């Protein structure tokens, strides 16, 4: 896959933050697709708190310190990454832009980091792995039953995927009210009659509509191949998720199918962290699914210190949720994360401009990360610790 020339809108000197890419994405894609990307569950308390909670953590810089060069590299699961952030799995990426997962994986490899491919993906996993020069992980839902999952894991192993990410917080889909109001279900699965009330928002985005139609419209999920039935239609996802909850008892079978590293994603408590270790996790991602599942749970950053304490160095701890700036990444690392996963931060760029938009998002985060380290007087991400930040007293006593 060839990197496309960066569009003028993304090249603009006025695009200086992830929020700028979000605004472009909002203008480019239909409201139903944008709200699927941007929205959260129910009243969206956790969605907002994921971002707001970073304001509670303040920096303690070392001044009169010159940092001529910053070391941003880290190791995750034995893999050398050039930056301490990985690209999280984002489902339905092909709806945001036809290149979808291919664009995100290629951009991740270009900056020397890892990409995590969602089960609910629009491009074949073999193609996604081929376009990336960096490591690629596979994120597992048990959609379609164990037969479909076993087939996917065999394909992932054969293609050279480096790790498996098992999401444990999705026994059913969260109640994402924006999706119901704005016609996401009708867009992907409704009849023409059901689509009619939502056609104005789609027709108001002719550029997106043209690329969507050229791409073939709604297509089956190529990485969920149900034995005897073939690829699962995209319309069956919500029902399939409700029938495919991962439980701790599934991990013995998963380990038999996947001999490589396993990341357990969706941990918010010390108890679940210890269970994940007991069931063979190589790493844990502290996550509330970007505020898209159960509303009013703890923000990921707020849950991070307790999980780090419970893990006590036995496995690596990652974190995802609310990362929009390089300074957010630094705060998570100071509180014990080895690295973070970014989702919406790059998906806004994807929706705005395809691969050039993703590359711009990663460039913004990397530059912001290095600037923050220099201002802190810290020469490397590996040297970050609690001494560089203050947290509310309630965090210390809980």
Biggest sheet details = 8 strands, parallel
CATH superfamily annotation: Aldolase class I
Can you count the beta strands? 14
Provide the CATH topology. TIM Barrel
Write the CATH architecture name: Alpha-Beta Barrel
| Uncertain stretches | none
Measured by DSSP, the beta-strand proportion falls in 5-15%
Number of helices: 21
Calculate the mean pLDDT score and round it: 93
Q: Would you tell me the structural class of the helices and strands?
A: alpha/beta
Give a description of the structure.
It contains 21 helices and 14 strands. The chain is of the alpha/beta class and 398 residues long. Helix 16 (270-278) crosses helix 17 (300-311) and helix 18 (326-334) packs across helix 20 (355-376). The chain has one domain: Aldolase class I (TIM Barrel), CATH 3.20.20.
Helix and strand layout, with pairings?
Blueprint: H1 8-11, H2 18-28, H3 31-38, H4 45-52, E1 58-59, E2 74-76, E3 79-81, E4 85-87, H5 93-96, H6 100-111, E5 115-117, H7 125-131, E6 136-140, H8 145-159, E7 163-167, H9 177-182, H10 184-189, H11 192-195, H12 199-203, H13 206-214, E8 221-226, E9 230-232, H14 237-242, H15 250-257, E10 262-267, H16 270-278, E11 283-286, H17 300-311, E12 316-320, H18 326-334, E13 339-342, H19 344-353, H20 355-376, E14 389-390, H21 393-397
Parallel strand pairs: 4-13, 5-6, 6-7, 7-10, 10-11, 11-12, 12-13
Antiparallel strand pairs: 1-14, 2-3, 8-9
Helix pairs in contact: 2-19, 6-7, 6-20, 16-17, 18-20, 19-20
